[in-house]
Amino acid sequence: MSSSPDSRLAKAAKQPNSDPFTSSSNVQCQPSRRPLVIIAGLLFALVAFATTGNAQSVWERVAHFIGLHGKPEPASASVLSEHEIAELDNMSPQNQAELLLERSINHYRGANDQIAGVDRWRGKLTWDDRLNSLYGIALDSDDLRVRAAAIEIGLASNNMQKNEAAIDRLENKARFGERDPRMNALWNIALLGNRGVEPQRAFEIVSASIHDTDEFVRSQAVEGLAYLGTDDTIAPLLEIFHDDPSPNIRERAACGLAQSGMLSEKQRRTTVPKLLDFAEDPSLDATTRTWVFQALRDITGQNLPHDAAIWRNWYNSDTKNWSPVTRDTQ
Question: N or C: which end of the chain has fewer CB within 10 A?
Fold first, then answer.
């Protein structure tokens, strides 16, 4: 994707940070003395309460304070404040979009309600560093509604009207344009289809490029199918995962099936029988088979060895107690 001048394509088509198919680099920070101060204070509190018989209860509160396990602990009610709502009218469209997308990422109630009025920003947003960063984080969210908010803001930033005329204007470029305009058109058509603008037509246009000889165009078409997220996209993504000659594109198809894009949890689960067949297929290379097992783990929530027979036995014996992997369960 580095050949495209549009940084949004790189942001959209890169492997999400949460993908199981990419390794994260370790960020090294300078050590801080603050933890030592906190620990000293906690020890002092324990000693102070020990003589009153309350040391155990104090330690329980301390353990809770520093614990990293268990259910999420909300810091507040996670609702868009009255102050922020009142200040929105005094902000520029750019600042409005960035604030609300940040709040959506953090699941603030009311943020997506404000983003639903995205038409007021169309043609008034620019892809600055902050919006690009928030956009990428939102597309990596485990909540499909946050990803949808990012798509809405992305279309507004691209000055895309959500109507059939927009697809009319893009179709010729998506089918026959030069590489960069074609990739942009494929991406925007996929996003429009996801937001309900002629999704079947969007599928037909985007899927027409999944066998293109240009690997960059083909990759963008695969990414587009993942973000279009209709039932029709599942079969071609499975085919690409199994058969595409490029390992990079097979990987992107695997990510689209397992975790990235706009397929729901329920849609992803329909791929399990085919993925089990892939796991048993001796024609697949070792790397692709590894991606198959990683996709199965992400979709089902089951932490099983990379062994096709074990996965098949699990599927045949119990398929009713899978742990959900997204928030899209209602």
Answer: C
* Coil vs helix vs strand at 239: helix
3-class DSSP state for residue 109? strand
Express each pLDDT in 106-130 by its tens digit: 999 999 999 999 999 999 999 999 9
24 is a domain residue: no
Quote helix, strand, coil % in the chain, to nearest 5. 60, 0, 35
Shared-domain flag, residues 92 and 137: yes
Domain assignment present for residue 327? The answer is no
Q: How far is it, in rounded angstroms, from Cα 243 to Cα 233?
A: 16
Look at residue 145 and tell me whether its pLDDT is greater than 70.
yes
With respect to residue 249, please indicate whether it lies within any of the assigned structural domains.
yes
User: Rounded CA gap, 193 and 164, in Å?
Assistant: 10
pLDDT of res. 83: 87
Q: How far apart are CA 324 and CA 56, in angstroms?
A: 36
What is the Cα–Cα distance from 178 to 122, expressed in whole angstroms? Answer: 26
Give mean pLDDT, residues 1-6.
Answer: 42
The domain containing residue 103 runs over which residues?
Answer: 7-15+76-157
Alpha helices in the chain (DSSP H): 7-13, 34-50, 55-66, 82-88, 93-105, 111-115, 129-139, 144-157, 164-176, 179-194, 199-207, 215-228, 234-243, 247-258, 265-269, 272-279, 286-300, 308-317
Q: 18 vs 141, 152, 177, CA distance in Å? A: 8, 21, 33
C-alpha–C-alpha distance, residues 254 and 275, integer Å: 10
DSSP, collapsed to helix, strand or coil, labels residue 79 as: strand
Q: What is the pTM of this model?
A: 0.79
- In degrees and rounded to multiples of 5, residue 263 shows phi and psi of -65, 140
| Same domain membership, residue 111 and residue 178 | no
